[in-house]
Structures are given as C-alpha cells and as structure tokens.
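JOB MANIFEST
job_type = single_chain_structure
chain_count = 1
residues = 141
[input]
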Amino acid sequence: MKPTSTNTITVETTVNAPIEKVWDYWTNPEHITKWTFASDDWHAPYADNDLRTGGKFKTTMAAKDGSFSFDFGGVYSEVTEHRVIAYGMEDGRKVIILFEADGDTTKVTETFDPETTNPVEMQRGGWQAILNNFKKYTEAN
C-alpha cells in the first residue's frame, strides 16, 4: 500500500536501538502513550493497538492543560513484523512506515498523505517532532 497523493510528506530518523526494541516501543500501547506528541505541553493519555492487517488503532492526543484533545486512529492494511506498517486514516489518507535494521540502529521512515487544512511544512514539522520524540524516548529507556 502506498499513500494516494502525489504530494506525500516523508519524515525519518535513525534510532540508536535494535529493531526488536524499536518495534516494541512503536507498537506497544504502554510505550505509545509515552512518545506520541509533538511538544512537552501535550501528552497521549490513551492508546489502543490491534497490530494486524485489518486491525484498528487509536491514540488520544491532548493538551496537558485540558484545552484540546483529539483521537488519531486508523485501520492497518499491512503489518510485516520489523519491516512495514501501513494504514488508512478515517479521512482516507494513507500512511506507510518502513523500519530498516542495521545492527544496533534502526531507520524509521514515515510517508503520508497530507491533509488539506494545514500547510505542508506545518504537517511535516509536527510529524517530525513526534518522530523525534519517539527517538528520544526509545533511546533513553
């Protein structure tokens, strides 16, 4: 499955951790709630993940001051352990995440269809900030 837009956005990072740990921290709700936010004034108070093709996931992202929250979720179209996670969001946009292991490091690349409300650079910055938070959390724990 590939994103549907020709104007996809890609963000990536290399995590200093082996693929087994990266996969666990990316997919386990216990860890998802610890990194799925772009800034320190937000948090993820809830995560549920049925990691299989056809399975659903949902993560609640919320401002710590209680002023705003939303659920981010979708349905998996492909799950290949330690390699690929692809899903569709409720609005029809597609996302694919590639995991590339190289010993004790793992490259994570996310490519997604942009939404039409916010500028592309804002979307890229937000998704990259969350990915950077994932790297920081995974390497520190």
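[summary]
The chain is about 25% helix and 40% strand.
The first strand starts at residue 9 and ends at 15.
exit_status = 0
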